[in-house]
Design goal:
315 residues, 2 domains, 7-stranded parallel beta sheet, two-stranded parallel sheet, 9 helices
Length: 315
């Protein structure tokens, strides 16, 4: 197939481009490089079937020639990034998604949106099923991401209902693995960088809030199956293995053999208190569930941070 990936230079996007190429597809990656470096794509540059174009999908999206799939990943995705780029985040969720949908429609291509567990906000149902409508503060600092993705889901469903566009929506829960940016501010890259540098690990609040972390290779299998499925309803993709943020910090200290201590810093506003995907739908409709345990995935991620030149830099 000929596949266009927006946001293909990012953490998840670069893994996806790699998988699609390995499956024998032709991949065009479009990325503004606002929050990603081209480094994630270095190993793909020059490979037959791969092309990269720098461009902001919020401004427009064109492509010469046929396409069978448009996979729309472009967006700042870590809280630190979307606090830094609040307007860009809303623009890419709205205008960017609209442009990607129009491209898919004009080519007769399947459209896949990568949405997020953030559509559930600070959830009052636990674990989160796709039927849950969420609890989002529409004017809080996280709203720029949460509402952008909620809008993106809404406009995706509207294109499906109004034009019969074949659409897919993945609600991606916290994901980790090689190519996370050390400076992106999220818990796993922060804790690994801090532990390896012998610095204190910064746990926000008392660390009793929970998250459920999915290894990136598992997510790739889920995304790939969803794109090839006929499932129009949103599908949670994540690992239901839940833990507190404090437990995560302790685990990373243990796995790195670090002497670092844990310090507490203020909890960001509207930080969700719990998060765990109910993946019944993914299991039933896609036959997908994650295969990698947290310890195994963290060991691989820590090894990558240790062995990759520049991975621990501020980038
Ligand atoms: N967190 C933390 N210390 C950090 C970074 C994050 O305690 O250095 C917490 C954050 O407040 C949240 C959880 O870890 O409760 C996961 O945060 P992350 O930014 O990784 O992703 P989120 O789930 O908030 O999108």
């Amino acid at each position: 197939m000929r596949i266009l990936v927006t946001g293909g230079a990012g953490f998840i996007g670069s893994h996806l481009c790699e998988l699609l190429l390995a499956q024998g597809h032709e991949v065009t990656c479009v990325d503004s490089l606002l929050t990603a470096g081209k480094g994630n794509l270095e190993h793909l540059t020059g490979r037959p079937g791969f092309s990269f174009r720098q461009g902001d999908v919020s401004a427009g999206l064109r492509h010469r020639g046929p396409l069978e799939q448009v996979l729309h990943l472009a967006s700042p995705a870590s809280p630190v990034d979307y606090y830094r780029y609040p307007v860009e985040t809303l623009m890419v969720g709205s205008y960017g998604t609209h442009h990607a949908l129009e491209l898919a429609r004009s080519k007769g291509a399947v459209f896949l949106l990568t949405s997020t567990s953030e559509v559930y906000g600070d959830p009052q149902e636990h674990p989160q099923r796709e039927e849950y409508w969420g609890n989002v503060n529409p004017v809080g600092p996280r709203s720029v991401y949460d509402e952008a993705k909620r809008y993106a889901e809404a406009v995706t469903m509207a294109y499906h209902r109004a034009y019969g566009l074949p659409t897919r929506i993945a609600r991606i829960f916290n994901t980790y693995g090689p190519r996370l940016r050390a400076g992106d501010g999220r818990a796993i890259p922060n804790f690994i960088r801090q532990a390896l540098a012998g610095e204190p690990l910064t746990v926000y609040g008392d660390g009793s809030q929970t998250r459920s972390f999915c290894y990136v290779a598992d997510l790739m299998q889920g995304l790939s199956r969803l794109a090839l499925s006929e499932v129009v309803e949103p599908v949670n993709l994540g690992n239901p293995q839940e833990m507190t943020v404090l437990e995560l910090a302790q685990k990373i200290i243990a796995l790195t053999g670090s002497q670092s201590v844990i310090v507490h810093q203020p909890l960001p506003q509207d930080d969700p208190k719990v998060r765990r995907p109910d993946i019944t739908r993914a299991l039933q409709r896609l036959g997908w569930e994650p295969a990698t345990g947290l310890e195994e995935g963290l060991r691989e991620t820590i090894r990558w941070f240790r062995e990759t030149p520049g991975a621990l830099g501020p980038g």
